[in-house]
Amino acid sequence: MFQKSEFGSAHGGASASLWLSGAIASPGPLTETREWRTRLRDWAEDVDLVPDLGQRVGSLTWFRGLATCTALCAGAIALSPGFDPIPGAPEPMMDARQFDEVRSQMITPLAMGADSGRHMGATDAVSNLRETPERPQIELTAQIGSGDSFARALSRAGVSSSDAGRVIGLTGLDMRDAALRPGTRLDIVLGRRTSRAMPRPLESLSFRARLDLAIDIRRVNGALVAQRIPIRVDDTPLRIRGTVGDSIYRSARAAGAPPKAIQAFLRTLSQQIAIGAVGAGDRYDMIVAHRRAETGEAEVGDLLYAGLDRARGKDIDLLKWTSGGRSEWFEASGVGERRGVLSQPVSGRLSSGFGMRRHPILGFTRMHAGIDFAAHYGSPIYAVTDGIVEYAGRHGGHGNYVKLRHGGGIATGYAHMSRIASVPGQRVRRGQVIGYVGSSGLSTGPHLHYELYRNGHAVNPASVSFTTTAQLAGRDLAAFRARLAALKAIPAGVQTAQGGGSARGK
């Protein structure tokens, strides 16, 4: 073995040195062979047959390497097997019996009879039926979807228009007003039809019209007869109490409060204090309308009472009360909401104020006729006070835009929405969702651009404050206090450890 170094060729070890010395000393043909091998070795060391073709281009060594590369490529091409296809024997054609057996083992839905598994194919002794036997009855379950109607659900299930009209007449429900809630289950049985050209007659129909009413319709002596089955329902409100831990939402959920009730509770509290001011150790108290049927079904209604016993700060004691045809939240003293006070339209931070500024997209200074609230994409946008939707749609650089008219020459605008949740002419209440935060129009990111108009001119939203306070008195105040005392008398059980709570009806 030989090694090549900076100082020339050197023997790779003692054994190689001894072998060479022996070859030189040995006489005869063996000596000549070894001498030839030595000369060949020395020549191979001096002549580099595979030099780097990227160096010394054009030299004798480079052309020698090019010749070596060309010879290797030519040898590889000469020894290649070629690209002609290799012929192979085709599979023999299957006869009818083999094809039928293979077809019977295939999984072919809706094709070739949809056979699955190993079955015996039909023989000449099998003849086609003139007509298939009719099922005596069909039992199925349908469901009323969102935006669906009772009549369409029956028609979709195969009930004839005459039977559907008779059912609607028997139930006494105006299905055009969506008397049945989406998701209502319809248990239907269709009977044998007299001919294939006629629809199957309705034999029975059972469904839950309301929480307290089930309707069972059956065909008796050829005529449909309806039976109303009343169901007893407990209307006692549900009270949930507990102690706030890391989060009031998580604490209330741990106590069994429905998410919808918690959202209404937080929305109500936000009209009095900032939600971030609610700390660990505060005690929450909420009462929601609750109906439970004797069959086990339950419905959770609106929030009726919201209370918060704070470790630091003023306690909150609010009851929803209807006065003068208007439902609003009143404090325990009988003082209602401060109507007209502009609340914050979205849960976020103020990112840009009112006045002249350099536009982040257009690049020049112009009037910023509103204030911006940075918020997460898709966050709900609320009406700051009661009003009527004057405009809802695309509005130039505002993108998706909603404008509310509040009376007295006051109007508000909400821009860059991702989705609009209101329509022109709609009457909205304070805190009602009218859209969701987005980045439509001339916007660099998700935020709400909020504007305030007075007599058609944009003004600084922070400069407007107007207040009218509702106050109960006389019989209304007495009835209000009686209702508040009755609700607060509903027990909620023994409270659990911090971060949880308990929920129980009366």
Automatic annotation (TrEMBL):
Keyword field: Signal
GO function terms (MF aspect): metalloendopeptidase activity
SUPFAM superfamilies in the record: Duplicated hybrid motif
Residue ranges of every copy of the M23ase beta-sheet core domain listed in the record: 366-461
InterPro entries linked: Cell_wall_metabolism_enzyme, Dup_hybrid_motif, M23ase_b-sheet_dom
Keyword Signal among UniProt keywords: yes
Protein known as: M23 family metallopeptidase
